[in-house]
Amino acid sequence: MKRLLRIWQDRVLMDKDGDPAPGGGGSPAPNNDVAEQIAALKAEIAALKKGGAEPAPVPSDVDKVRKDLQDKAAKEAAVNRMQEAIRFNLSAGKFVEENGQYIGELSKGLFKELDSKPFSDEEKKASAVKKGLMDYFFSLQENIDAAPEELKGRIMTYKALADDEKEKQSVKYWDCLTLTVNQKKMSAQIEAAKRANGGAKPFEEGDDSRKQYNDRVFALKSHYLGAKQGE
Q1: Which of 22, 34, 134, 224 is 20–30 Å from 96 (CA)?
Q2: What is the pLDDT of residues 121-172, one digit of tens each?
Q3: Contacts from 217-223 at CB under 8 Å and sequence distance 24+?
Q4: Is the Cβ–Cβ distance between 179 and 216 less than 8 Å?
Q5: Which residues of 77-103 are buried (b: 16+ CB within 10 A; e: fewer)?
Q6: CB neighbours of 22 closer than 8 A, spacing ≥ 6?
């Protein structure tokens, strides 16, 4: 815009320089109709706006380096997500087979149905499978009741999400299912040990297996809270 105003000012000065000297002589004066000049200027402005004439600023060396690093980090993150999805898809069948009694009686059939569907890539498949299993798992109140207290708030947050958001964030919430399954397995083992010991308590409070599990739940909770604070 400033450049166009400058052009207009230059035109006015040129017109003044071309005026004939008093008493005749000199070259004929150009058309000094201000209205025509303003109309021409507006036409140029409109043409520049239409064509996006304002040139983009040339990036500095620092900007180029920053963009290269951001592009590299984005590519690495995409590769990591895809690799994790592939690992999940390869192991999900075994996980459901071994833990079907804790996930729910329909889990094996549900997994086979989800696993047979076509997906555009491994990441989308992993997200859909996780969402499907979590939706079923946490639709059963007994599983919510069995979840560690530290996870129940996250479970309810997941259940409140829209379907498309559940699929997008399934990786973030998947540990809610796996840790609850582990909790149910541990509880079943404790009950089995009690029966084997005639009702005696099989584990002391300081038992290493329970301590390791509680430490893992606490570590995941701390990681989740730290990620939320960083958002």
Answers
A1: 224
A2: 999 999 999 999 999 999 999 999 999 999 999 999 999 999 999 999 999 9
A3: 217/148, 217/150, 217/151, 217/179, 218/150, 220/175, 220/179, 221/150, 221/151
A4: yes
A5: eeeeeeeebeebbeebeebbeebbebb
A6: none
CA dihedral 52, 57, 59, 63 (to 10 degrees): -90
Convert the pLDDT of each residue in 194-228 to its tens digit.
888 776 655 554 455 556 656 666 566 555 455 55
191-98-118 Cα angle (round to 5): 145
Which two three-digit tokens encode residue 131? 């969402």
Report the candidate in 79, 92, 94, 189 with the shortest Cα–Cα distance to residue 134: 92
Residue with tokens 């109140």, as numbered in its chain: 141
Would you state the structure tokens that stand for residue 7, as one six-digit string? 């052009």
> What angle separates helix 149-159 from helix 208-230, to the nearest 10 degrees?
40
Place of tokens 């084997």: 196
Structure tokens at 8: 């207009």
